[in-house]
Amino acid sequence: MVVAFSGGVDSALLAVAAHRALPDRVWAVTAASASLASGELDHCERFAAEHDLQWSSVGTHELDDERYLANAGDRCYWCKSALMDELVPVAEQVGATVVLGVNVDDLGDHRPGQHAAAERGARFPLVDAGLRKDDIRALAKAWGLEVWDRPAMPCLSSRIPYQTPVTVGLLSRIDRAELVLRRLGFDDVRVRHYDDTARIEVPADRITELAAVAPAVVPELERIGYRYVTIDLAGLRTGNLNSALTT
User: Fold this and answer.
1) Which residue has the higher pLDDT, 109 or 2?
2) Long-range Cβ pairs for the range 72-76 (8 Å, 24+)
3) pTM of the prediction?
């Protein structure tokens, strides 16, 4: 198996399970591009080393694709297509199957990338096993995987509203803004980009805590280039920009 390894709990559990079932026949591969948040590549390499996984990174080239940069509702399709362009040849060389850490809960969201991967022959073992996110976290905890409660870390492009073009500079700005929040202890955070406005999302039970450190946050994000810094009072909602596709 060639496991598309993002470092999150889903792909981590999948990679470790595959390694246990097929020792020395599993490769964990992490896609590296400007849409990957700072520190994530190092995290993936450390996890792989700690769990004796064969690991490597590959550069993906979605940012060379105008269809991805246009940031229409199918952006994730072209992202996964770029990933499969790199993983399929690796898998074919050794007669392997590409597998992704998609879970049952993911099937209810707008995820065109899943279709792109499936079209190229990828499999979703966690879905085949009927596992939901809570099941995966429970299994990962039982197996002693340190990522069992790790917040999701989707690609940085997911912070950009559809129809706003994706650029390397914009991804870098979002990355730097989220680093400011993470250094203050907000690991589960999104900085949504709206031109000169940064809309910060943290879990609802941490909004008061975030407001209390606003004097430290606002100047930093202004230096990065935002004129307005706001807090989303509804709290963090994974994939909430997808609602624009149905309204």
Assistant:
1) 2
2) 72/162, 72/163, 73/110, 73/112, 73/162, 73/245, 74/112, 75/112, 75/157, 75/162, 75/166, 76/111, 76/112, 76/113, 76/116
3) 0.91
